[in-house]
Write a structure and sequence with these properties.
Number of strands: 5
Strand order of the largest sheet: 1-4-3-2-5
Number of helices: 1
Shape: globular
Order of helices and strands: EEEEHE
Helix content: 10-25%
Structural class: mainly beta
Largest sheet: 5 strands, mixed
């Protein structure tokens, strides 16, 4: 069974609050508190297009649509490039699936 979920991808900056000697700077907060719904781990099975993919969550495949992304469909101009760009980012990766507030 394929269900549709929403996925929020968060890009994390590589800049860490380190001092010159490599120790953590205690004056900079280490990070935000955990979100209320941390989501579930899922493995990317297939990238459908530039804004949707299929993931395996708890043993079942689910279709996921990315929140805030509106890419061309596969048969539209730049649709192939949009799919390839998302595939480059997430193919065979483990992602965290977080449902949108409105299912």
């Amino acid at each position: 069974m394929i269900r549709t979920l929403s996925l929020c991808l968060v890009l994390i900056s590589c800049a860490a609050p380190l001092t010159v000697d490599g120790e953590l700077d205690a004056t900079i907060p280490a990070g935000d508190p955990a979100p209320p719904n941390p989501g579930r781990s899922a493995t990317v099975v297939h990238v459908a297009d530039g804004d949707s993919l299929v993931v395996s969550v708890d043993g079942s495949d689910e279709r996921v649509r990315l929140i805030g992304i509106n890419s061309p469909e596969r048969d539209e101009c730049f649709g192939r490039e949009a799919r390839e760009a998302l595939e480059h980012l997430v193919a065979d990766q483990v992602v965290v699936v977080v449902p949108d507030v409105d299912e």
